[in-house]
């Protein structure tokens, strides 16, 4: 009888641990495991990426459609190139789309805002590996203040 | 004079290295053998009960309270910046990466490690271990191996339970008491916690700590001076040495996992 009781308690312990692991991986972590996993890459060249980081979200109208895969410096022009990993179910962005580095809230983290452009016969759809041409760099607070002071001085 | 000091230093170093050597020989003697699941599984189950199930209560209670305190303290600072929605990631990341594995290891060293040392030390003092050898039962296989595996298996499980309960405790204080939005708590957490980077690294950490704590506890017991004073010293040493080892290894693992 005591052996049975021990076995039941050990079983309960392991079940509790599995439940904890399920809670952690399903409710706490992002759905990296549950995602479809099918992605394609787009690239964008910026002048300044500000505080953008690898794994920052890419949003269309506030909805996360992908994440930043890598940020590298182009060695010819010394401008940062951001590789964007986008979920394959959103594969219909025209080449007139634009990307901007935005900030969520006043102190929040920076993310990429993707704005789909217009479509007509002459506009083709972005494929994996294409560059998004229309980009807006991050706003750097110091530059903004510098410009403001410069304008005040000239007036 | 200087030569005497040097001799003392040398003596101590040799004793330490000999101790490590004995610990390694003990572990290898216990683990490297033909597996006999029919005989060793009931022993393992018994030890899982003693080491794992009996540590469950202290892990649950301290996990709950640490999560609650984290949420309470985090809220006072975060609300100054109007960033209450970052309470979820704060609680989840600090528990997953650091507090879960480390505090579980420290509690485990106090709760289960000291008990293992005292038990084995007393077995040695009452000559049960030599008795087993007389009956051609290998005490390393019969006593050390099941306890080692029970510790190594149950501590990552305990750390996971600790973390999950802590996050629920943070929810209890942050959402139900202080009024952070429940959806914000979970969604900000999901946006900031990565399965591979945070959860798996936490599990790896607690597995390493499990190995260290259980090994030190078993070695200190097996190597204890077989007197009542020797056993009490060995028990103290288990808690002190394994706590220090856990904190030291935690720094190294954190630097390797999250520092780069």
UniProtKB/TrEMBL annotation, chain B:
<dbReference type="InterPro" id="IPR003453">
    <property type="entry name" value="ABC_MlaE_roteobac"/>
</dbReference>
<comment type="function">
    <text>Part of the ABC transporter complex MlaFEDB, which is involved in a phospholipid transport pathway that maintains lipid asymmetry in the outer membrane by retrograde trafficking of phospholipids from the outer membrane to the inner membrane. Probably responsible for the translocation of the substrate across the membrane.</text>
</comment>
<feature type="transmembrane region" description="Helical">
    <location>
        <begin position="20"/>
        <end position="36"/>
    </location>
</feature>
<keyword id="KW-1003">Cell membrane</keyword>
<keyword id="KW-0813">Transport</keyword>
<dbReference type="InterPro" id="IPR030802">
    <property type="entry name" value="Permease_MalE"/>
</dbReference>
<feature type="transmembrane region" description="Helical">
    <location>
        <begin position="239"/>
        <end position="258"/>
    </location>
</feature>
<keyword id="KW-1133">Transmembrane helix</keyword>
<feature type="transmembrane region" description="Helical">
    <location>
        <begin position="148"/>
        <end position="173"/>
    </location>
</feature>
<protein>
    <recommendedName>
        <fullName>Intermembrane phospholipid transport system permease protein MlaE</fullName>
    </recommendedName>
</protein>
<feature type="transmembrane region" description="Helical">
    <location>
        <begin position="199"/>
        <end position="218"/>
    </location>
</feature>
<keyword id="KW-0997">Cell inner membrane</keyword>
<dbReference type="Pfam" id="PF02405">
    <property type="entry name" value="MlaE"/>
</dbReference>
<keyword id="KW-0472">Membrane</keyword>
<keyword id="KW-0812">Transmembrane</keyword>
<feature type="transmembrane region" description="Helical">
    <location>
        <begin position="48"/>
        <end position="72"/>
    </location>
</feature>
<comment type="similarity">
    <text>Belongs to the MlaE permease family.</text>
</comment>
<dbReference type="InterPro" id="IPR053408">
    <property type="entry name" value="MlaE_Permease"/>
</dbReference>
<comment type="subunit">
    <text>The complex is composed of two ATP-binding proteins (MlaF), two transmembrane proteins (MlaE), two cytoplasmic solute-binding proteins (MlaB) and six periplasmic solute-binding proteins (MlaD).</text>
</comment>
